[in-house]
Amino acid sequence: MSENLRVLGKYSAAMESGDSDAVYEFFSEDFHSHVTERVSPERVGTDLRGDEQQWWQQARSAFPDMTFTVDLLVESGDLVVSNWTVKGTHSGTPFYDVPASGEPVTINGTAILRIRDGQIVEHWGGPHCQKAHGLIL
Questions:
Q1: Is 102:72 a contact under the CB 8 Å cutoff?
Q2: Do 127 and 96 touch, CB atoms closer than 8 A?
Q3: Which residue, 11, 41, 47, 65, has fewest beta-carbon neighbours within 10 Å?
Q4: Distances (CA, A) of 76 to 73, 82, 112, 113, 127
């Protein structure tokens, strides 16, 4: 297994365990998400690591029985493509302002990550859909 896959595996394990502070260990201080330019252009050039941490904290709070799986990994040079799935029951707090209903939720996404010197430095991708309560968020 390559060093980049080991780094991503350690980060994924930290997120699965609820250690959202690991974002600051695994994402470089100069981390750049190419998604930001599309969804929050006013945030370009700011430290986005807290947003990643907040997403995980909100998901874990909303879906207390949450599971996180990596369904596919592809590596090419310093790039790793990860297709992932979060599943749980929305029995906790609201998730993106959607109140808990007790219904199952599945969130699937793809992340393309550039890993350099043991840290994630760039990101493309994100959740494809967040299906909850029959709504696509």
A1: no
A2: no
A3: 41
A4: 10, 12, 11, 10, 22
- Structural domain for 49, as ranges: 3-136
Token pair, residue 54, equals 């907040």
CATH number at residue 95: 3.10.450.50
- pLDDT number for residue 106: 92
**pLDDT value for 128:** 57
Torsion angle of C-alpha atoms 16, 19, 24, 25, degrees rounded to 10? -80
3-state secondary structure labels for all residues of 55-102: HHHHHHHHCCCCEEEEEEEEEECCEEEEEEEEEEECCCCCECCECCCC
How far from 135 is each of 43, 130, 131, CA to CA, in Å?
27, 8, 6
Mean pLDDT by 10 residues, the chain (137 residues): 91 85 92 85 86 88 93 95 93 92 92 95 76 45
Under DSSP, is residue 105 helix (H, G, I), strand (E, B) or coil?
Answer: strand
Distance CA 60, CA 54 (A): 10
